[in-house]
């Protein structure tokens, strides 16, 4: 469809309703919205009727006789139609007076008006009385579907630039489309000003749009065009809008449709904004700098620090960025505006200012830590003069914040005394809830890792109160994540999910670009979903968390939450060997990053995976994947759980089942008293598995205790870790005993179904053709290559692959080949 055809179609869709509407119809939109074409189309619909009497006035007739349109309105009869196509050159006062005389009345003619905005004529009374029907730019703009129709004839290389610059403005789309259809391909890569010139759109704006605005309004828009959006609301203190803002508001009214309001912001049509930006670049350099600095201070006053920093940098006044940071409380920006803001401020300040500014160096440490570069952050922090920072209270406080944050992200925060100095510094800032919230958050992390959940929850409540008082929305997001982490440790999966949902909502609404927050959220989600047996969802969460580490932000709880489901899912999909190798690879990376505690946790996790595999397969146990990693001096609950379980599996492998059981009973009683339900469940399950395999007479009772706890928590997957044939038979006996609790009966039934599915997957009924596909798959090649080898279509290959995945309980090609080889199917 050509532009002319598309424009005609748009005009025709509006002409019908217009031609049948009585009284005054006003087409109100800036130039370039096709008002004249709509009027022409509507006129054509009625001019051939016998009683039609039409008089039309346009720009040329206005120039010849400025008052002719007004005279025609005054003299026209009720059966006549007056069309006033634009007001340029017309006597607007006379037309307004004629409207007030003739409307509304019984003998008034029909009148169609084309104007740029409602203030062009005195129409307020007629609009209020309902005597005038308004068709504004919203009806005249291009819809998404109409834009796609216009772009259909545009060469592919030009579609994006035409769509981005033209948007909903019909005239811009027409000019750009015609240019694109004639231009050589390399012009698609031109800069926007060159494209505007080549298409003629800059001339159209200069001749048709600029004259609609006063010189003051145009100048205000030119200066405001240095940012993509224009803030127009008065600030929170109730200060009225500046003279410049008032001019911008008047301009937005005059060319509504080219400037749209979204909340407190004005969005300028892209082509028009680029034209305004070009006019700004033509100003003398000193005026550009003044305008940039003025705009930067306005954005700073509104709290939009990122835009302010960009503008200060554009003005060549990077030193103002350091002043801005100091005025806003330096690291308070992190808690109130989020990590993307602090990273952007550091980037905009530049290396020269960074090298001599302790404030910016401390902020740089945060940036490095949040991107997983712990060693670099530690090295930079060591170069910052602590004594010099201590001479300034705010710098001393920021220095201490970074020190504690380094302990947290470096997985070294362990003891209550780690927070003593920071507590003393915060105590001096009695009226600053931001710092109190941060202190309580850090204490919450510390108590959670030590399984002091009552204290952790008290810290959490305190941190939320202060965060809300300080409007620290970023910290509120992370407090929901800390709450989810606490509930995961306590085994309350329902509350953990609710806290995660709250965090996800906050992230989507306010910080969707913060990848670090997404990583933390996804790690905790992976742990929750895996516990519940939702393996598909867990796989998706693992891809957004474990595979980003250690190149993203995390503290000890997050590493533990991400890596365990990652390793277990690899074992499910690809076997124990790939899982052990993946853990070894991650350990090497973690040690290089300066995170030996996390590496030790993964070492013990590898031993646990191997022990569980020995139990389930019943095969002669191979050597363990490394030695037992020792406990840290002040271990977290995750380290304790992994250490005690790994030690028990090693003892069982060595034939000392009694020592394994004795050790597990001790730590199980301890974890139960600390309300560490997750660890208690795993200890109980290991105890039940050992008892079942040692034919202990109390084995069924041990299993019942473990299954009841698992059912209470809803933790289905943990039971599958020890589901050997012996344990499966014990579970069956438990189910046959007809438990009194219906929920327990359902839980056992679910376990049995999962166990039968897993057992069935060991002996799948693969067809001969499926085995052929598997053999071809093991040699590599795409669906097309396999199809040629086996003389079948690509669709047929994919059909057989889906059946193979289902029968083998796998999810990809590599896993299918691995599983088939395990079963000696190929």
From TrEMBL:
Which UniProt keywords are listed?
DNA-binding
Any one GO BP annotation for this protein: regulation of DNA-templated transcription
The chain positions of domain HTH luxR-type read 759-824
In its UniProt record, a GO molecular function of this protein is: DNA binding
One short Pfam name that applies is GerE
Q: Which PROSITE patterns match?
A: HTH_LUXR_2
InterPro entries, A to Z: Sig_transdc_resp-reg_C-effctor, TPR-like_helical_dom_sf, Tscrpt_reg_LuxR_C, WalR-like, WH-like_DNA-bd_sf
Record has Disulfide bond as a keyword: no
The answer, when asked if DNA-binding is one of the entry's keywords, is: yes
Q: Which domain of life is it from?
A: Bacteria
Spell out the protein name for this chain: Transcriptional regulator, AraC type
């Amino acid at each position: 469809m050509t532009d002319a055809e598309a424009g005609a179609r748009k005009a025709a869709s509006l002409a019908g309703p217009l031609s049948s509407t009585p009284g005054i119809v006003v087409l109100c939109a800036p130039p370039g919205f096709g008002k004249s074409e709509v009027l022409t189309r509507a006129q054509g619909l009625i001019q051939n009727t016998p009683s039609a009497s039409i008089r039309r006035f346009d720009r040329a007739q206005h120039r010849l006789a400025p008052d002719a349109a007004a005279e025609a309105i005054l003299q026209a009869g009720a059966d006549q139609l007056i069309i006033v196509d634009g007001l340029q050159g017309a006597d607007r006062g006379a037309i307004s007076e004629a409207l007030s005389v003739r409307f509304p009345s019984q003998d008034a003619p029909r009148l169609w008006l084309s104007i740029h905005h409602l203030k062009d004529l005195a129409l307020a009374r007629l609009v209020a009385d309902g005597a005038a029907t308004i068709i504004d730019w919203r009806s005249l703009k291009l819809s998404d579907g109409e834009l796609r129709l216009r772009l259909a004839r545009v060469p592919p290389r030009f579609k994006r630039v035409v769509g981005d610059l033209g948007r909903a403005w019909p005239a811009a789309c027409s000019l750009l489309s015609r240019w694109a259809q004639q231009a050589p391909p390399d012009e698609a890569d031109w800069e926007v000003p060159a494209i505007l010139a080549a298409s003629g759109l800059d001339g159209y704006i200069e001749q048709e749009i600029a004259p609609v605005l006063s010189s003051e309004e145009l100048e205000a828009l030119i200066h405001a065009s240095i940012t993509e959006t224009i803030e127009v609301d008065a600030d929170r203190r109730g200060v009225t809008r500046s003279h410049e803002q008032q001019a911008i508001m008047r301009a937005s009214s005059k060319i509504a449709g080219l400037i749209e309001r979204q909340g407190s912001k004005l969005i300028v049509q892209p082509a028009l904004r680029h034209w305004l930006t070009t006019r700004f670049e033509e100003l003398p350099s000193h005026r550009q700098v003044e305008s940039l600095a003025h705009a930067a201070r306005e954005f700073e006053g509104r709290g939009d620090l990122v835009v302010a920093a960009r503008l200060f940098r554009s003005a060549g006044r990077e030193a103002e960025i350091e002043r801005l940071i100091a005025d806003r409380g330096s690291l308070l920006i992190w808690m109130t505006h989020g990590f993307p803001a602090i990273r952007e401020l550091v980037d905009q300040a530049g290396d020269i200012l960074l090298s001599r500014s302790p404030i910016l160096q401390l902020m740089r440490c945060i940036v490095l830590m949040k991107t997983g570069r712990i060693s670099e952050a530690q090295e930079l922090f060591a170069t910052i003069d602590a004594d010099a920072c201590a001479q300034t209270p705010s710098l001393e406080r920021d220095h201490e914040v970074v020190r504690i944050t380094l302990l947290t992200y470096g997985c070294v925060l362990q003891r209550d005394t780690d927070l003593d100095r920071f507590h003393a510094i915060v105590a001096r800032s009695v009226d600053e809830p931001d710092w109190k919230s941060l202190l309580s958050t850090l204490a919450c992390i510390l108590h959670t890792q030590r399984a002091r959940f009552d204290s952790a929850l008290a810290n959490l409540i305190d941190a939320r109160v202060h965060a809300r008082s300080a409007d620290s929305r970023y910290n509120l997001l992370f407090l929901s994540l800390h709450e989810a982490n606490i509930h995961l440790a306590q085994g309350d999966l329902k509350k953990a999910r609710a806290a995660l949902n709250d965090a996800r909502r906050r992230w989507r609404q306010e910080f969707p670009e913060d990848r670090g927050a997404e990583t933390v959220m996804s790690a905790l989600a992976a742990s929750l979903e895996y516990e519940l047996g939702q393996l598909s969802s867990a796989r998706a969460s693992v891809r957004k968390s474990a595979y980003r580490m250690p190149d993203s932000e995390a503290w000890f709880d997050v590493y533990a939450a991400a890596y365990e489901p990652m390793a277990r899912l690899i074992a499910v999909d690809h076997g124990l060997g790939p899982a052990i190798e993946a853990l070894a690879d991650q350990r090497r990376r973690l040690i290089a990053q300066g995170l030996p505690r996390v590496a030790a946790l993964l070492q013990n996790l590898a031993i646990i995976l191997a022990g569980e595999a020995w139990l389930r397969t019943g095969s002669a146990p191979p050597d363990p994947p490394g030695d037992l990693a020792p406990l840290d001096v002040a271990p977290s609950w995750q380290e304790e759980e992994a250490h005690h379980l790994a030690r028990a599996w090693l003892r069982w492998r060595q034939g000392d089942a009694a020592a394994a059981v004795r050790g597990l009973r001790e730590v199980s009683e301890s974890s139960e008293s600390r309300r560490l339900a997750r660890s208690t469940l795993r200890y109980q399950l290991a105890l039940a598995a050992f008892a079942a395999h040692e034919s202990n007479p109390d084995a069924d009772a041990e299993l019942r205790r473990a299954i009841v706890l698992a059912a209470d928590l809803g933790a289905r997957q943990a039971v599958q870790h020890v589901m050997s044939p012996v344990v499966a038979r014990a579970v069956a006996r438990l189910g046959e005993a007809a438990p009194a609790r219906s929920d327990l009966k359902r839980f056992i039934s679910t376990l049995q179904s999962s166990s039968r599915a897993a057992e069935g997957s060991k002996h799948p009924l693969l067809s001969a053709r499926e085995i052929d596909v598997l053999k071809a798959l093991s040699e590599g090649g795409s669906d097309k290559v396999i199809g040629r080898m086996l003389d079948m279509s690509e669709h047929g290959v994919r059909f057989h692959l889906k059946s193979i995945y289902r029968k083998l309980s796998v999810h990809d090609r590599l896993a299918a080949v691995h599983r088939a080889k395990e079963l000696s199917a190929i």
